[in-house]
Amino acid sequence: MDNGLHHHEVRKRLYENLEPYPHPVPLKRFFDRLMYVAALAAPLVLLPQVLTLYQSKDASGLSLVTWSFLTLINALWVMYGAIHKERLIMTSAFLICMIDIVIVTGILLYR
Q1: Do the Cβ atoms of 109 and 56 come closer than 8 Å?
Q2: What pLDDT shows up at residue 6?
Q3: What's the angle, vertex CA 72, arms to CA 66 and CA 78, rounded to 5?
Q4: Residue 83 dihedral angles phi and psi, to the nearest 5°
Q5: Higher confidence at residue 2 or residue 75?
Q6: HSE-up of 13 (CA within 13 Å, CB side)?
Q7: Residue 99 and residue 105: Cα distance in Å, rounded?
Q8: How does pLDDT run across 16-51, given as a tens digit for each residue?
Q9: Which residue among 15, 44, 74, 102 is least enclosed by CB atoms within 10 Å?
Q10: Does residue 106 contact residue 61 with C-beta atoms inside 8 Å?
Q11: What is the pLDDT of residues 59-79, one digit of tens each?
Q12: Dist CA 31 CA 26 (whole Å)
């Protein structure tokens, strides 16, 4: 945490009786780092769907209701991450929400 809030976060974790970050146990520390990779990889998994949708200009296999609800759910996760100041959750959910919006737009365009 090189963002200048390191000491605030350390004090918050001590006060709230949370585990330290980075964790002293190697397995937990590895998992903490792995979650950063997962948070950035999750939006990338949706890119093939975006490419297929916009290249084929065919949305027949996609559900507007499903993708709209996914957009809403991810927007709620963005707000949750912002409220709790969890940048990892907020960033990942924001990126996924943006891709969801692109997919919903494509569904509306190519129905």
Answers
A1: no
A2: 58
A3: 135
A4: -60, -40
A5: 75
A6: 13
A7: 10
A8: 777 777 788 999 989 988 998 999 899 999 999 999
A9: 15
A10: no
A11: 999 999 999 999 999 999 999
A12: 9
Q: Are the CB atoms for 23 and 32 separated by under 8 Å? A: yes
Peptide bond into 22 cis (omega under 30): yes
16: part of which helix (H) or strand (E)?
none
Residue 41, classified by CB atoms within 10 Å of its CB into exposed (0-12), middle (13-18) or buried (19+), is: exposed
- Tally Cβ neighbours within 10 Å of residue 3: 8
Please count the other Cβ atoms lying within 10 Å of the Cβ belonging to residue 80.
Answer: 13
- The two three-digit tokens of residue 110, written as one number: 């190519």
Q: Global pTM?
A: 0.78
Distances from the Cα of 7 to the Cαs of 3, 66, 89, in angstroms?
Answer: 10, 42, 21
